[in-house]
Amino acid sequence: MSENVSIRPVVRSDYDQWLVLWEHYNASYGRAGERALAADITLMTWSRFFDAYEPMYALVAENHGRLVGLTHYIFHHSTTAIQPNCYLQDLFTSEAVHGRGVGQAMINGVFDAARRAGTSRVYWLTHESNASAMQLYDKLAEKSGLIMYQMVI
Questions:
Q1: Burial class (CB in 10 A: 0-12, 13-18, 19+), 21
Q2: Considering the entire predicted model, what is its pTM?
Q3: Taking CA atoms, which of 19, 58, 83, 108 is between 20 and 30 Å from 119?
Q4: Are 1 and 61 in contact, with CB atoms under 8 Å apart?
């Protein structure tokens, strides 16, 4: 990774730059234009990062004062462990830093946060078509073998 990229918790003054990355991330999953997330969802997501009662957190990657990546993660309980689990929900890096180790550094940042929180597991999902991301994920973790189902209601 470039020595000029740092991984750190998001701060309120990051909003404008975070929003640009957030919109690009959502667009990569088809949530743009008429299918874009409603503004109140984005604002609620942002506010949760700063609410001490919410188990949702964000890290950003910064290069020369510009944000070039984001990751969001959530701690939650489960029925199979006493310690909380950590769900790495969102991960996005700008094209300018693809292949420079920023994604891996951000995932490692989540691993570090999970260790500090005493969690027993970090897990995440990706789309089956996201082959480039899976090349990285295969180096960092094991596939669980689980298949996700969902029903939008």
A1: buried
A2: 0.93
A3: 19
A4: no
